[in-house]
Design a protein that fits this description.
Elements lengths: L13 H6 L8 H8 L17 H17 L7 H27 L8 E3 L5 E3 L1 H18 L5 H6 L14 H9 L2
Organism: Pseudomonas canavaninivorans
Protein name: Phage terminase small subunit P27 family
InterPro entries: Phage_term_ssu_P27
Length: 177
Amino acid sequence: MAGNGNSGRPGKPAVLKLLQGNRGRENVGDLLAAASAPIVPVGAPPMPDVLSVEAVEEWDRLVPALISLGIVSELDSMALATYCQAAADWRRYQRLIAARNATSDDELGGDIQTFKTGAQQMHVLRQLANDAEKRANAAGAQFGLSPMSRRNLKTAPAQQGELFPNEQRAAADKYFT
């Protein structure tokens, strides 16, 4: 049976393939180009000025976590803004749906719209909430904001910590110079 993009072993970095002798017989020029590709520096992207207040709150909550994971760079402004605005829209629509449901006779006022003819369809607020959820999930997957996308996310290895932190460093410097 054929697999999908999540099937099989995770890919190896180009440098590791070269060090192991290029067992897969891939094009050496392509491997060298991938190995020497510039590394994008980690940092906070500039926040667009068009975000809603709730999207700015999401931005401020999310950016420090993404920086600490080494996932976001200054180039990711649009993708991050798309996620933050979609998440803010989803919350707003969910609040509106809950308010309509609370005042409805059958508690479906925000989910089902009934016309004068008796015909029913999904309420426009539910459609907007579903669309915002899809946008948030698609944009959030780029940053590993779901378990499946986090599994496939390739990040730089964590920096090695100090062997002798703080006051132990001075004692270690006496012996290891």
